[in-house]
Amino acid sequence: MDLGIKGKRALVCASSKGLGRGCAEALAEAGVNLVLNARGAEALEATAAEIRSKYDVSVTTVAADVSTEDGRAALLAAAGDVDILVNNAGGPPPGVWSDWDRDDFIAALDANMLAPIALMKALMPGMIDRGWGRVVNITSGSVKAPIPQLGLSNSARAGLTGYVAGTSRQVAQHGVNINNLLPGIHATDRAASLDAGVSKAQGIDIATAKAQREATIPARRYGTAAEFGAACAFLCSQHAGFIVGQNLVVDGGAINATI
């Protein structure tokens, strides 16, 4: 399918690896020029070089922490006018309710709620002026079904979801669509880290911990970054113009819900 976005320009946050990279590659395959961001310059430059060699698109890189004002300023200066924004950031550490204090919640809010809101506020006016734009926020399946050990993520991402629910319906009339992608377990470094945590907590090897989690997924496997990226690219496409303020769960059926 031709997504109709060849020649558009996209900013993809946290895109040196994992789900962010999957989104960047899917957009590049559709002919979208990219601004890639991550905190680590080495992995970021390696990813950019691979995408440049594989797809006929331009790739700009900005090594910065988007949870900080200085990081966002550097990123926005390099990005300029973009048609597509993919917000993404690593999740806060797991734990239990008694582990977290105010500073932990502020850090989670800065990374997973306030930073994406700041980027939307900075970039959507240009999209509105041009009459077209797409924003996809990578949140978490925990927004729909909270995960006890991910209380910081549950809280911050739920706040972003509420913001998007109202804002998306205000900007849709200008051809700007905001939606959220809610990943379940995908084969990324984050999944490996959580598997390691289960392994340590239960005194089992990592392969067993992974098998246990796979058994809870109807698809009986972890997702891939490539298929997640394809879902992102579709939401960024010309064909998604009537999809507004939605939360698409990409989790292999793990969340057992009718709606």
UniProtKB/TrEMBL annotation:
SUPFAM superfamilies: NAD(P)-binding Rossmann-fold domains
Matches recorded under Gene3D superfamilies: NAD(P)-binding Rossmann-like Domain
Coiled coil ranges: none
InterPro entries: NAD(P)-bd_dom_sf, SDR, SDR_fam
Family recorded in the similarity comment: Belongs to the short-chain dehydrogenases/reductases (SDR) family.
Name the record gives this protein: 3-oxoacyl-[acyl-carrier protein] reductase
Native species: Yoonia maritima
